[in-house]
TrEMBL record:
GO MF term (any one): FAD binding
Segments crossing the lipid bilayer: none
Taxonomic lineage from the root: Eukaryota, Viridiplantae, Streptophyta, Embryophyta, Tracheophyta
Family statement drawn from the similarity comment of this UniProt entry: Belongs to the 3-hydroxybenzoate 6-hydroxylase family.
Name assigned to this protein: FAD/NAD(P)-binding oxidoreductase family protein
Keyword line: Monooxygenase, Oxidoreductase
Keyword Nucleotide-binding: no
Source organism: Arabidopsis thaliana
Gene (UniProt): CTF2B
Gene3D superfamilies reported in the protein's UniProt record: FAD/NAD(P)-binding domain
Domain (FAD-binding): residue spans on this chain: 44-379
UniProt keyword annotation of Oxidoreductase present: yes
Amino acid sequence: MSLVRPIYPFLARSKRWFPVRTGLKSVCLTTTRAETSGVDREEKVVIVGGGIGGLATAVALHRLGIRSVVLEQAESLRTGGASLTLSKNGWRVLDAISIGPQLRKQFLEMQGVVLKKEDGRELRSFKFKDNDQSQEVRGVERRVLLETLASQLPPQTIRFSSKLESIQSNANGDTLLQLKDGTRFLANIVIGCDGIRSKVATWMGFSEPKYVGYCAFRGLGFFPNGQPFQQKVNYIFGRGLRAGYVPVSATKVYWFITFNSPSLGPQMMDPAILRKEAKELVSTWPEDLQNLIDLTPDEAISRTPLADRWLWPGIAPSASKGRVVLVGDAWHPMTPNLGQGACCALEDSVLLANKLASAINGGTESVEGAMESYRSERWSQVFRLTVLANLVGKLLQSDNPLVCSVRDNIVSAMGKSSRTNDGTHKL
Ligand SMILES: Cc1cc2nc3c(=O)[nH]c(=O)nc-3n(C[C@H](O)[C@H](O)[C@H](O)COP(=O)(O)OP(=O)(O)OC[C@H]3O[C@@H](n4cnc5c(N)ncnc54)[C@H](O)[C@@H]3O)c2cc1C
């Protein structure tokens, strides 16, 4: 059952283009002609960024009969970033856009969590379904998720090697997008899904995300003869350092190590150096981790400084400006401590697509109104999760022995209560 269809059942069948209601006047999407000199292409809906949020938005719009073009700076779908964990709110969206079942077949469902100290002693363990029968947690390879989303789109929807360089809005509210290769797009509606360093967000007045003082190594260990782990998320807590691993499939295990660092450090890409540094960090920790790092192919290991941006009411700009709107990390970059960034990007995408489709197809709201209504429905959840993820990260990354000891007790106690209705499960 889809989240898209029950809300606007008639939209999924509609392939026609209707005038877009734009607050003051109606503008026909098919006949946008304003100030076209020097414009190479006119598009009704342009999505900037072909990551999880961008592709999910394009798929949701497509299922509602609305064509879009996705501008992605890379030459192909991003394969880095190893894997991520999706909770039930993410799965709800994947079901809504009909790709949940095919992804479930490929990725293991986690039964619960095991929390350990750095010497390997267990702090506690719990099952996800103890408190919430509907919880669903699976590690998913980012590459597979992106490929599956892309496979739902009509050919030519994603335009690779299309890096957005500059944005300008014109008098009638259309937006001029200039790409690095010089191509100029005139768009009636722009959806900024260009991630944590979003050009669209900067143009809208958002500040740079703030580095939170720790970085993450990530990798995907490959066991050609089958991985040996139980279907559990494993966390290991140290001082100013923590790690975790999640069996993703029969042969792959996702792992991460987060470590305090006063600065972002150099942008290291050499996998040999990344591997060496990651191993050094956990050299005295349980052997499983060292093996996982050794079994990680070069292309599946990365290091990322972590950052977020809090959407303070009255201070942060709105999620939309004119007919330009933000989705996912471009709007609400958050630290991964709750495993909710991608889940929230997915939730944004389906809600926004529904609201835009309704406006485009002649509903009661204008496009601008639909964007504002999307903002107001999503803001409290994403603001709360961004703040909570930051605070949880502060506690978990502390290197003060006393704080760590208190933390271990709190974390143990939190285990049972941290599973909330919005699907959050992590510590
Ligand atoms: C270490 C780590 C672990 C994480 N773990 C989890 C987890 O377990 N669960 C979870 O739900 N989330 C997790 N996240 C968060 C998750 O990765 C992000 O929230 C998610 O990727 C956001 O999707 P997005 O589409 O908004 O941005 P992105 O995935 O970053 O996609 C943005 C896209 O825009 C493109 N782009 C950027 N600039 C331009 C431009 N100028 N022109 C054209 N294209 C452009 C990029 O190439 C990219 O393809 C984690 C993040 C990190 C760093």
